[in-house]
Each structure stands twice: as C-alpha cells, then as structure tokens.
Amino acid sequence: MRRVLVVVPFALDAEGVALRRRQVAAVPLADDIEFDFRPVKAGPTSFVSPHDWTLMDIAIFEAGLSAEDDGYDAVCIDTVSDSGADALRSVLDIPVVSPGRISLLFALTLGSTFGIVAQWEPSLARYRKVIREWGFSEHCAGVEHFDTPPDFSSLIEGKEEMVFPRMIDAGRRLVGGGADVVVLGSTTMAAAHAALEEALDVPVVNPGPLSYKLAETFLEMGLAQSRGAYPRPHTPKPGLVHAMLDGAARHEADAGS
C-alpha cells in the first residue's frame, strides 16, 4: 500500500480535518494508495498578510518534515498557497506536491488563459503576488472574489445556498473577462466544483483532487523533485524546527486556556 501524507495548513480538530478529507472522493484513485491527513501543530488563524504566509510556511514545513521517516511515499500540501512546499522538497526524497502552481499549469493545458475564484477581497494580494512570482501574469485573465470571509474549519459546509451563487457569479465575470479556464483559488472551495462546472461553459480546475492524482502519477512514474532546483541544506536542523512548533503549540494552548 502506497501512503501519501496530506498536510492540513491550520491546526484543526478531527471534524475540521474530516471535512478536508472529503476531497479525496472527488477523483478516482488506485486501490493501493491511501491518503492520511495531518494538521499543523500551530500557525496563523488568517491568511491575508506576509505575517500569516511566513507562519504557515514554517508550520507546514514542520508537519511534513518527518513524512519520509514515517513511511510515507509522497506529501501533498492542502493549500493553494503552496506554503512550505519548497522547504520540504529540499529535505525529502519523496515527491512533494502542492496544488497552487500545478493548478495554473494544468489550466494552461486546457486553455490559453485562466481566471481564479478567490474567497474575499483581503486574499487578493496573495494571488497577485504568486501570479507575478510564478510568471503567469500574461496568462491570468483575472482574479475575482465572492465576498465571503473564509472558514478554514467548516469550509463552505452549510453555506452552499448563499455561497454557490456568489461563486458562480465570480466565475462568470472571469469568463466574461477572457478566462478560458477557471481555477478554484482554495482547497476550501472543493465542494463547489460540481456546481461551478455545471454553471460555466469552461473547464473548472479543482486543486486539491488534482494534487492527489498528480501524487499518484508521480509515484507510478518514479518521479520526484529535482535536486538542481531544491538542493539539500548543508546542516539540516529538524530538531530546531520541531522544537519551534512544539513551543508554539504549547503557547497557543496556554493562550486558549
């Protein structure tokens, strides 16, 4: 049995993790591969500024750091921000798959332009940042949000009647603005994929399930990240990283008590 660790980017309880695990059912996968979901120990409670992005990088890096020693064959990052992925690629020999950049690359195999559905206005800065850094500016037809604050624990569960029409409207604005393909801007939106696909006349990319399928493909083809792009550190310090997050988790627990 091949095992894939999916790192959940927030310190969620079992119920929150179970909602994210539902994404696995959205794509056909081989019977001999299983996906385990592990939340980070501590991290940001929002995701709108460089402060948050830095904390999430560290939190996800720590959560996936032991994956190879724990017997996993691959790691998936459960956030379109791709937080922590590059650091994990530098220390793990197993493939590390993150859904953000691959979703945009995949979209460009289906069309010449893409548009991204974002959650709310404060999230737009991050999308603009990564589109520029990843070199997609000329292919991005736009980013449209549906004006709903994110809920990283319950996702869009129970809010479908309110949220789906707003998401569809955002998708239509993207198509009207020239997007050949629409990409969901967060793995928290996975449950809306079918509704958007039915309502829009263009392909809709669902990042989380795409990353699971790609992890399976990498394993079948024996592929992993290049050491040319992701060199190993001269002096790895996993103990330091784990100590940092263990201390952060204790701090958060004390603050909440």
Order of helices and strands: EHEHEHEHEHEHEHEHH
- The computed structural class is alpha/beta
What value does the average pLDDT take?
94
Quantity of strands, as a count? 8
**N-to-C terminal Cα separation, in Å?**
41 Å
As a percent range, the share of helical residues equals 40-55%
Q: Strand order across the biggest sheet?
A: 2-1-3-4
How is this structure best described in words?
A four-stranded parallel sheet has the order 2-1-3-4, with helices on both faces. The protein has helices at 14-21, 50-64, 85-91, 99-107, 124-133, 160-176, 193-199, 207-221, 238-256, and strands at residues 2-8, 33-39, 74-77, 96-97, 114-118, 140-145, 181-184, 204-205. The chain contains nine helices and eight strands. Helix 2 packs across helix 9 (238-256) and helix 4 packs across helix 8 (207-221). 42% of the residues lie in helices and 14% in strands. The relative contact order is 0.17. The chain has 257 residues and is of the alpha/beta class.
List keywords for this structure.
single chain; 257 residues; alpha/beta; four-stranded parallel sheet; 9 helices; 8 strands; globular
Helix and strand layout, with pairings?
Layout: E1 2-8, H1 14-21, E2 33-39, H2 50-64, E3 74-77, H3 85-91, E4 96-97, H4 99-107, E5 114-118, H5 124-133, E6 140-145, H6 160-176, E7 181-184, H7 193-199, E8 204-205, H8 207-221, H9 238-256
Parallel strand pairs: 1-2, 1-3, 3-4, 5-6, 5-7, 7-8
